[in-house]
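tmp note - Toprim domain-containing protein
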Amino acid sequence: MMDLLAKFSNVRTNGRGWTALCPGHEDRQNSLSIGLGDDGRWLLKCHAGCELATITAAIGIDVADLFAEGKRKKKGSPTNPSRNSATVQQSGFTLAAYAETKRLPTEFLRQWSLSDMTYAGQPAVRIPYIGPSGELLASRFRIALNGDRFRWKAGSKPCIYGQSRIEEARKRQSVVLVEGESDCHTLWYHGIPALGLPGASSWNESRDASLFEGIGEIYVVIEPDKGGDAVREWLSRSAIRHRVKLLELPTKDASALYLDDPARFKERWRVASLGALPWTTVAAELNTEERAEAWSLCEPLAKSRNILADFAKELADHGVAGEEKTAKIVYLALTSRLLERPVSLVIKGPSSGGKSYIAEQTLKFFPQSAYYSLSAMSERSLAYSDEPLAHRHLVLFEAGGMGQFGSYLMRSLLSEGCLRYETVEKTRDGLKPKLIERPGPTGLLCTTTRFTLHPENETRMLSLTVTDSREQTTAVLAEIARQIPRAENGLDHWQALQTWLASGACEVIVPYADALARLVPPVAVRLRRDFSTLLSLIKAHALLHAATRIKDNHGRIVATIIDYEAVRVLVVDIIAQGVGATVKPHVKEIVSAVKQLNGSYENPIGYRALMDLLHLDKATVSRRAREAVDLGYLDNLEKRERQPARLIPGDPLPDEVEVLPTAEELEEKSG
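out:
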């Protein structure tokens, strides 16, 4: 015992054991605790954080020497069968045991900084995750051969294992991605570049995909279990998939292949690698099967001449009263996710007006892969989330849930078709820049009680307003009173239609786009964005009817005048209102009512008079009046908050301008 203590400096007893200067770092006051376990094993702990292997190496012994000491029975000590048995059947896991199990030399494993240590009083193997520049990214401990095998060091964030070998992979233009560290060790031992996922589902697209930049060939080992299914799932959405070859082995994994026949490992690995299938080939086969299955479910619907009319009828059967136009636009916008420029929408209206209900019911017609819905999100979650956004709609049930910075990120994603966000992260070498990329294109569907959103957001979206009339309220009450049970699983054919569309060619051309551009009066700069939105909706309607539209020589779907007319009916007023060429009917009504009541500076009009004239409740009158004031068509002489409004006419209503030509006019000009 005293021989070991003699190897340390400034040894002091503290009643429970000893303290000493730690030889693993420049120690100026005792930070090393030394103790003796119940079984006679030495226990060392550096309170400054030095690893056990670092300490033992500094004093010229192996970690195993600490355990060997514990096996010696002290002279004169009584025999204790239970304790001796515990020592012989010692739990935990050592580097020597790991090396023996995997048939790898211990010294080879030490080259990759694997070492023995103590975890929770038991031997364990420390597996450091080293970064490309030699920095320590994380540490994982293997505590057992089977069962519950791993623990992460407190504060460690799981990441790709083997990043210190990434440059070698780039030079060789090839790398193998496996699950777990032991497969990496086996492949490294045979000179094969490899990286390891700590778990099949641990892939983080924004964090991990960039590691594979510059590597032309990526072999991904697919294990024959649920882990393999998990790898296929994230791989189907990953940016690296087009460079991937799927490698299925005759054994569970690379380590098992080596242990099965070490002498023939390289030969068997080469044969398996030659049989690896490109992801694109596998995906095409799966896509063909999925497409055929979807078509069998949706064929009658896909061949319908007016799918939007079918949608409106089905939606009404599912309990949505009125709001047919709004629901159709939402449906078309969600379909546009498959295009290069998805359409974004905001549904506005009072609380309890049915905004979210319309969105929720329409989403049921789509598979969940079409959208990602949230009630709210933190300001930076759009950058850090792992949820794929490419060719999907982000559904946010309250626009205010984005926050100011989140709103900025959203604008970038919608405008640029992708998100590039540079931040800094804390590393061992200090703060380092990190670029986060989120591929798109992505559409946005949100709801709000506000009249307007941030101006930069407002111009990127079409604004829909739910109906707050007495007639609509009557229709909603009647629908509620019917109390008809709704089938929750009767929309399979609608979801199959979207799956079928997504699995086919989604490129659409509008042959009359030039003629349409010439016929649209350039009354406002905003029309530049709205015209693009109009074309996307036309393309979405043509795509929806892909089964009945012709294709050109390049396989592109050709939009017809029918597609234009179907979209024009839905959005002509919305686009006109957006550019100020007309105003919403309910705004006209409230302005006309103030004029009818002879509103003036001498005779400002209050809400009560408007309620009596229009037969509306105070909340509805107040909302309409505030919107008219916000647009400048009414003035409120009362500037104090929470005081009764005193309304007078404001700016004159605009002269009506027809911003979109009729289908007949367009056909004549484009013919």
